Amino acid sequence: MSSRPRAAATGRPAQSPARPTATGRKTASTPAASQVKAPPKTAYHHGDLARALVRSATALIQRGGPGALTLREAARQAGVSVAAPYRHFADREALLAAVLAEGFDGLADHTDRARRRAPDALAALRAVGLGYVEFAVANPSVYRLMFGPECDKQTHPDLMVAGQRAYGVLVQAVRDAQAAGLVQPGPAEVVALAGWSICHGLASLHADGLLEGRLPLTIDQAAQRLVDMLLAGAAAPAPPKRRR
What we know:
Blueprint: E1 19-20, E2 26-27, H1 49-64, H2 71-78, H3 92-117, H4 121-138, H5 140-146, H6 157-179, H7 188-207, H8 219-234
Antiparallel strand pairs: 1-2
Helix pairs in contact: 1-2, 1-3, 3-4, 3-5, 3-6, 4-5, 4-6, 4-7, 4-8, 6-7, 7-8
């Protein structure tokens, strides 16, 4: 007769016999490879974790302000372990700095697109100013933090670079207008500072709710009026008329 075990009456195959161990005890045989469950896949692919955490952090700030942002909650929102953020961010401020850097990059992209779409250099300078206010109105929670004291920006080089890039769009627009003879000559940074001060002041007042019920026009209309006033003051003087 064969020494192999026969199938049970239920029709199921019989289990392999137990194997003796060195101690003489019997242990069940190892299950087949096809029966072993694979470990669950992570919620992100390699290289995407930092980006996922920045998105989660941004959403937390938009919903609950800066106080809602913690590494633990950002990890939970991203669907990763509480230890996972430390692969990319040393602490909460490092994650916040990444959020703000992305904010400045978004501001630079938005204003630069407006600049490039404009038909001439003066219209481009105007478009940059209006685009600045548009971005702030669309992203008030992050915008406040971009210029607030919540994060020590000087200690985060990537954040500083992103901020300079956003400012550089405005400076370039001024230089282009000066080169076209449409804005008075002089240091482009001075005209840029005047434009930045006006647009940032208006955007900040709006983000903080201080203009509610105080203006007889919309924020977009107010931005257009202020930018036009600035450009009128910065316009290059008309050449003197020739005497006949």
